[in-house]
Amino acid sequence: MSVPPRAVQLQEANEFLKEHPEVQFVDLLIADMNGVVRGKRIERASLTKVYEKGINLPASIFALDINGSTVESTGLGLDIGDADRICYPIPGTLSDEPWQKRPTAQLLMTMHEMEGEPFFADPREVLRRVVEKFDALGLTICAAFELEFYLIDQENINGRPQPPRSPISGKRPQSTQVYLIDDLDEYADCLQDILEGAKVQGIPADAIVKESAPAQFEVNLHHVDDALKACDYAVLLKRLIKNIAYDHEMDTTFMAKPYPGQAGNGLHVHISLVDKKTGKNIFAADDPEQNAALRHAVGGVLETMPASMGFLCPNVNSYRRFGAQFYVPNAPSWGLDNRTVAVRVPTGSADAVRIEHRVAGADANPYLMMSAILAGIHHGLTNKIEPGAPIEGNSYEQLEQSLPNNLRDALRELDDSEVLARYISPEYIDIFVACKESELEEFEHSISDLEYNWYLHTV
Q: Model confidence over 168-221: pLDDT tens digits?
């Protein structure tokens, strides 16, 4: 990826500063392996310098575990002297932060080697390399995310979350009423500020719906014809939601399974492919099952799904989300307008036929999740992989659980996958697996409250 000409970059910066004389600071943001946004805050006067020369950040930012500690077995920490790389702005991501009391802007960055080449361990670069394979086929990726989250109280009970009190009734919600408009009204000010904040930041959020648990909601992003930009929007939307909710004296969680017995937080993505020459969706069909390109894309996604689980469900908690009653598929499957399967093909307008991937949790890094799914699609298209017959009816009653159901098995599948290694560099997979195995080791050596309850006085 070439860095845009300096004159173009400076024009974007200068125009923004001219239009926003009130801005005092700019947050320079970069998403790490876990999708956690990190970076630096600079003063307004330094913005043009960032566009001209970039900023330095350590390469180890992409070797951090969920607690922000460097995992040395990745080789990106002390082994290289915790050396810096250079980060450049991503054009079109400079915007206001509407929640700030002191006027502040934000700018998304991506990391490069000092010589200018993209840095291989930046998850955005991982995705860009997969997208290049579609460019070679003359295809444009159109994508849109659906992001689920819980509003939670800022005060936890013994470290566990609880729903926030309604600003209207003062009561904590107990309802699991999916799509209930009244529940939207209970938190209308916060939710409306999220949509308005997204508009300010150029994030194409077009709807919020009530999901199937107390104070759980979903924001739908409109499709864009750029896979990288779709992921940028998902990362920035999550940050926006967190900060707007905090302004309303609430917290949020995108944890895959924050409450036992309630629905988890998913991250669904809709994907279609457009032929650059004709401008037509290659999945378009009156009868999707008869479209060979669609079938092959689905076939590739299903074949690579077990190996992709480490990217789709990257945390220990991710696997607690699965269960038939919560519409989370546990086997590679597909169907037409069927929400019990892993890959749903909506059956609406022929031109709008697309793949809806329904496996990942909201705790996934959008860039890595998209990389894995697109790898499967490309693999299926180029090898003409057939997916088998679509599932009709309840897939949970027809298919046994076969996807990895824990992080350790998922990492083994990823580490052993020859197909994914053709799309995502083995060097990056090694770094990802090292970080997640480090987290897993710490988790497995901890002692839970349940273990004390069961064993302390009984064995």
A: 888 887 766 555 666 678 899 999 999 999 999 999 998 898 887 889 999 999
Paired tokens of 328: 């989370």
Exposure string of 286-302, with b = 16+ CB inside 10 Å and e = fewer, is eebeebebbbbbbbbbb
Question: Do 303 and 309 form a contact (C-beta atoms < 8 A)?
Answer: no
Query: Closest by alpha carbon to 381, among 146, 145, 130?
Result: 130
Task: Count the helix, strand and coil residues of the chain and give each as a percent rounded to the nearest 5.
Answer: 40, 20, 40
Cβ 142 vs Cβ 272: under 8 Å? yes
**CA–CA separation, 146 and 143 (whole Å):** 10
**Model-wide pTM > 0.85:** yes
Q: Which residues contact 452 (CB under 8 A, 6 or more apart)?
A: none
Sorted by sequence, the CB contacts under 8 Å of residue 65 that are 6+ apart come out as 34, 71, 435, 438, 439
CA 375, 376, 379, 381 torsion: positive or negative? negative
The helix (run of H) or strand (run of E) holding residue 182 is helix 181-186
